[in-house]
Amino acid sequence: MSPTDAPGDDTAGATPVTPAPKTIPARASRRDSRRTAGGLPGLSGLSDGELDKWFAAEGQPAFRARQIRDAVWRQNASTADELMTLPAPLRARIDEAFRIDTIVEDEVKIADRGLTEKALHLLSDGALIESVLMHYPARGFGGPGRPMHRERHTLCISSQAGCAVGCPFCATGELGFGRDLETAEIVDQVRHAARRLGPSGRTITNIVFMGMGEPLLNLDRVLEAITILSDPRRFALGARHIVVSTSGVVPGIRRLTALGPQFTLAISLHAARDPLRDVLVPLNRRWPVAEVVAAARDHARVTGRRVSYEYVMISGVNDTDVDADALARLLRGDLAHVNLIPMNAVAHTPWEASSPERVAQFAARVRQGGIGVTIRANRGQDAGAACGQLAADAAGEAAAPIVARRRETIIRQSEAALRGDRSVENLPADLEVAVKAGGKR
Ligand code: SF4
């Protein structure tokens, strides 16, 4: 996905709040600072049981686990030296056994006059992932008929390095799949953002799993991360302030429904018609629109929570009146809300974002069909706006013939889709493997 106003955030375009932290120039020193993880587990991703077991095996009293939890989650420690409440020999022992921080370096770009901070994170094995911190100033004055919207700080985080789904409008999709993130690598994105916010007295109020990767293809670790982030003794963020998005991994949605979570489910829909969605979200060739929406509908019924549908607006491709009517028909009567997001330009894509007028007309038409719609503002236009753009830039530009071939393929596929032809192509090989492995978890 792209950094946009996340579901529940509707204060786009407001003036900046407190000054944002400085950009950290990381690229130059990256080579020197890289270190191998040596397979050590990340401390922040351990469950209470795992921590207790480790301290017991070390002959340490049980209260040490609480001290570690506090150091990781209250002091946001990133090195063993910062575990100040522990004796020096134990600090050294912990340093040998764990990675205190799984993110080696950050490069932070500030955009939107301080309202958006886009971070490129270097992991221990050299993988690059992104997170985006979006600030929303307070709005309104409160009082009868004048609702007060509190200041919010929403962090969009990654669940995988790269992504196998390969949506053609997404820079991460262009990068392809790298690997699943460990639980600690997911939650350390949150610790890093919290550390940047800390000096100003602000805290993260919302977390959205809409960064790099398909969260439901790394679901075990995403669930572990949510457990940690919503644990009152650790990050203590209410589950209702967490959004998990998916491009449509139906077994994963059904598994979430069975767990009965309180967080919000978001479906990256982008097209209501199968031929078009086959192209825009290749996973649709495995789980088509009707199956995805049926699973999401069941989720809303069982949990009582409204499902968000994300819809990237692409000029002349999925923004026609026919598409608006199809979308309204698809979701009519559901506990659902649609977020329209103008597309970010991505190098290999021949498409452009829909015009603001077209987005407004599309929204009006869907609303006439009885569906709630919000038009989201794109964030980070001046800092590599598209999801995966910073990592793609770091990876270097693809050769011109490769980009040209990709564009030709996308044009050919989308022309066929607009004629109404279903895709006859198989899932991309990476995605086939990921679906087989992750779709069952
Ligand atoms: S599912 Fe993957 S490829 Fe598709 S938009 Fe999300 S990150 Fe990009």
Summarize the structure.
The chain has 15 helices and 12 strands. It is α/β, with parallel strands linked by helices and 441 residues long. It starts with 29 loop residues before the first helix and ends with a helix.
Describe this structure in words.
With 441 residues, this protein is an alpha/beta fold. The chain folds into 2 domains: 42-97, DNA polymerase, domain 1 (Orthogonal Bundle); 112-438, TIM Barrel (Alpha-Beta Barrel), CATH 3.20.20. It is built from 15 helices and 12 strands. The strands form 2 sheets. It has a 10-stranded mixed beta sheet, with helices on both faces. Strands 5-6 form a two-stranded antiparallel sheet. α6 runs parallel beside α7 (219-230), α9 (274-280) runs antiparallel to α14 and α11 packs parallel to α12 (356-368). The two termini are 22 Å apart. Iron/sulfur cluster binds at residues 1, 163, 165-167, 170, 172-173, 212-214, 247, 268, 387. Iron/sulfur cluster binds next to α5.
Q: Find the CATH topology of the largest domain.
A: TIM Barrel
Question: Which ligands occur here?
Answer: iron/sulfur cluster
Helix percent reads: 25-40%
Give the helices and strands as they follow along the chain.
HHHHEEEEEHEHEHEHEHHEHEHEHHH
N-to-C span: 22 Å
Give the DSSP E fraction (strand runs of 2 or more residues). 15-25%
According to CATH, the homologous superfamily of the largest domain is: Aldolase class I
Tertiary shape: globular
CATH architecture of the largest domain: Alpha-Beta Barrel
Overall structural class, as computed from helix and strand content, comes to alpha/beta
What is the CATH C-level name of the largest domain? Alpha Beta
Provide mean pLDDT, rounded: 85
Task: Give the domain tally.
Answer: 2
Task: Give a quick account of the main beta sheet: strands, pairing sense, barrel closure.
Answer: 10 strands, mixed
Radius of gyration: 22 Å
